[in-house]
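Appendix B. Chain record.
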Amino acid sequence: MISYAFNPAIIYNSAIWGQVDSIYTLFFMLALMFFVSDKQMLSGVFMALAILTKPQSLVLVPLFALVMIKKNTPLDLAKIASVSSAAFVVVALPFYLDTSILELFKLYFSSYIQYPFNSLNALNIWALEGMFLPDDTQFFIYDISNVGLPDVWIGFHICFLFYIENQR
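Structure tokens predicted for this chain:
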């Protein structure tokens, strides 16, 4: 925790730049730590907190789900899903007392539409071409928004297969 708290990148990103990435990363790393430690309920709670902090966490939910389905009984899966969902609702509810919790889901799905750019100040592969390029910018014959999705799914499958092989 000390190395995390005093990490210059974390300090710069949160205290100077004003981003919530450090909070999201902490929740996500705790979810991953408990997931690997076979404490799936705690992993689910921290994954719910990570999703509430930054919706990008949703990208790894299918991978977590595949491994949990492989490792748990249907009753255990129901318990994990219930605890995770309860954590999500309990934390989100105070912010949506005057509206429906469905407004939160609308917000999540509309946020991707609000930023139709390849990179918003992120140092990623797309930033080499320039920041704020529209998602419909061509990369060979594809829009750049369509290039990353297959990469993510291929990565999921490789990680899942690697995990399954190491469990034997």
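Further analysis of this model is presented in Appendix C.
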